[in-house]
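Input.
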Amino acid sequence: MNASTRRRVIAGNPMIPFMLTGILLLLWAAPIRAAEQPRLVFGPEEFVHSTGGTPTFDRPFTVPATTTAPFTLCLVNGEPEEKEIRTEHCPVRELRGQDTDDEEEQDEEDRRYAKKEKPRDPETVTSGRVLVDGREVVSARDFSKRDDVLETTLRLKSGPHRLHVELHGPPGSRITLAIVGVIRLGKLAQARAGHTATLLPDGTVLLTGGRDKEHEILLSAEVFDPATLRSALLQAELMSPRTEHSATVLPNQEVLVAAGRDAHGVLFSAELFQRDGTFHTLPATVQVSRAGHTATLLPNGRVLILGGVDVSRLDLAEGERFEVPDGLLYDPHSGRFTPLPGLLKVPRHHH
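Output.
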């Protein structure tokens, strides 16, 4: 990885909006139980000395209950586009998504870079202070070290906090500041891969089936709660062990679990996860046994099922739909699977 890709590691980081999505990405990964992810609790924000005197800035920020120590304040002095960011403790690389394979090469570059004498950038702040909740965490002496990046560990609790910044320097000098904590994801109740992860109407995530570490296909299911970052195993199990299946929330808030594969091959069967937390086999079966397909709820209440692989592991062009007859009550048990009249132009699976 060249040096230019490591610039602007704090300011304008495009990866930040996707960090919450990392919670769901964990659930789709290879068999795994727990993980830690960096989480921004403030910034990154650029503070510019645009007038004479000593400009001050006050910013509120909140630490979510799901974000814990260690908390690190990261400060880049000067224009990030013109600087090579070299830091060990501030989790800049994780925020940028840098491959861990590059860490040894990065450390060697860090050592070479540290030996160079760097002239002061005209856009660097010559002095200043940073306070969190009235306590000084970066002092004027810290700015005199002429480091590109300043770091300090903070002691924060969940809830509201206040940041205060004072700058001294020529007009146009600037700093970029961020505060980073850690999200500690709780363990899944069952390590699994090849499962489904379906967002339920109450905000929890239903995980069904998949394979365990021994590649055994699972009957188990669990519910992950993003509010607590914990997952609980359901007492109820799937009617059939399955992986590479689909799980789609229906208009009545129940979940259609369809097809996939078990230890014997590709499945025709379908089942329903009901609101009471139990699974029940549906009388109807898919028209074409398939695994690795998609199953999408349409605005009219039908479920569109496309692609996948068949018993011969050939990509499928056939599609079908699951629909429930019109009536006063929406009853998936009376639903049926109907082949679509047309075919996909390109057979596909895991799309």
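The chain is about 10% helix and 35% strand.
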